[in-house]
Amino acid sequence: MKVSVVYALPERQLWLEVEVPEQATVREAIEFSGIARTFPTLDLSSQKIGVFGKIVAPDARLEPGQRVEIYRPITADPQALRGESGDDE
Question: Where, if anywhere, are coiled coils annotated (predicted)?
Answer without folding.
Answer: none
